[in-house]
Write a sequence for this structure.
């Protein structure tokens, strides 16, 4: 099934012509539950990986203020809670039985740190044929993103980018290693999802605009918001441009960075000091109460009963307190190290 983002409520570039030259294409990935194969683009799916190529590991120091859990613990915990949320229960009936509560406590208790390199976990596999505008090194037709599913000094999982020529993979790896230690909440364990890529047009977040233009957009917002929300008596709308007209929420490739709770900082390549460009945004959700106009048309039908997995977050990934992880790459060389940021 395709996913279709509704037209923006307002053609903002016709009202503020200064924005027109700043338009950028972004590819919303629209991950949805599925069973992807190694030969498909996916989030959290299996990677097309050569059997004779070493699987990457993380040997960095991790934030050890909480004990880690296993990948199996995360999967069993999710299955337990999903079943509990979906089954009928009375108004005073507990979500979990005493036996289930005891099992959940065991699954969340954690285990001692293994103290050895941690195998990386597949996050995204993007075939260039599926993602308009995505380009890689000469000969590469596939981008694979893995990460260590633990917090690092940045407060983020440490990501690894692999560009690959699929024609060279003649003997694919069937059973890749799994990380021994995982974030205790499973925040960095993506559920397998198939993708429904869609091109949309974006404009910079107000944080990246000249102060004078950003101020005019904030002043313009409330009156425009009131036209479609006459019931709102709180004089909302100052962030109308930011949430509804600038940067698309959710997992995406390219476009503009979703700067939010802090001002943008220079994303300069550590090797050549060139300004890096957004490659991939990993999101904690595709929409929320402030970005409802971005909900795809196909997801506006009456939803089926939702369990643990929210309709807006099929991969079940959570960055920080519901933020985004931005991955930037250097436009001068794919060999230069990428940058990561949380917003």
């Amino acid at each position: 099934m395709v996913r279709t983002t509704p037209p923006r409520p307002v053609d903002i570039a016709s009202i503020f012509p200064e924005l027109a030259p700043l338009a950028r294409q972004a590819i919303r990935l629209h991950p949805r539950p599925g069973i992807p194969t190694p030969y498909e683009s996916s989030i959290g799916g299996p990677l097309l990986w050569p059997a004779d190529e070493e699987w990457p590991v993380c040997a960095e120091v991790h934030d050890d203020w909480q004990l880690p859990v296993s990948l199996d613990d995360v999967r069993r915990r999710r299955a337990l809670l999903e079943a509990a949320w979906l089954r009928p229960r009375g108004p005073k009936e507990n979500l979990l039985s005493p036996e289930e509560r005891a099992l959940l406590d065991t699954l969340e208790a954690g285990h001692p740190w293994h103290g050895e390199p941690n195998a990386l976990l597949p996050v995204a596999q993007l075939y260039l044929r599926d993602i308009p505008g995505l380009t890689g090194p000469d000969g590469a037709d596939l981008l694979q993103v893995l990460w260590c599913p633990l917090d690092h000094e940045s407060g983020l999982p440490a990501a690894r980018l692999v560009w690959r020529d699929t024609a060279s993979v003649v003997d694919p790896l069937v059973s890749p290693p799994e990380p021994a230690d995982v974030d205790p909440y499973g925040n960095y364990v993506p559920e397998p999802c198939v993708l429904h890529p869609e091109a949309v047009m974006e404009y910079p977040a107000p944080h990246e605009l000249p102060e004078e233009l950003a101020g005019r957009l904030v002043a313009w917002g409330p009156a425009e918001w009131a036209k479609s929300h006459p019931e709102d008596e709180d004089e909302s709308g100052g962030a109308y441009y930011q949430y509804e007209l600038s940067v698309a929420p959710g997992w995406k490739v390219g476009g503009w960075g979703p700067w939010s709770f802090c001002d943008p900082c220079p994303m300069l390549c550590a090797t050549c000091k060139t300004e890096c460009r957004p490659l991939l945004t990993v999101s904690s959700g595709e929409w929320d109460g402030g970005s409802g106009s971005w909900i795809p048309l196909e997801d506006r039908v009456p939803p089926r009963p939702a369990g643990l997995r929210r309709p807006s977050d099929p991969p079940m990934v959570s960055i920080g307190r519901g933020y985004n992880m931005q991955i930037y790459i250097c436009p001068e060389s794919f060999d230069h190290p990428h940058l990561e940021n949380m917003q």
Q: What stands out?
A: The first helix runs from residue 12 to 15. Residues 32-69+110-192 form one domain. Residues 50 and 172 are 5 Å apart (CA to CA).
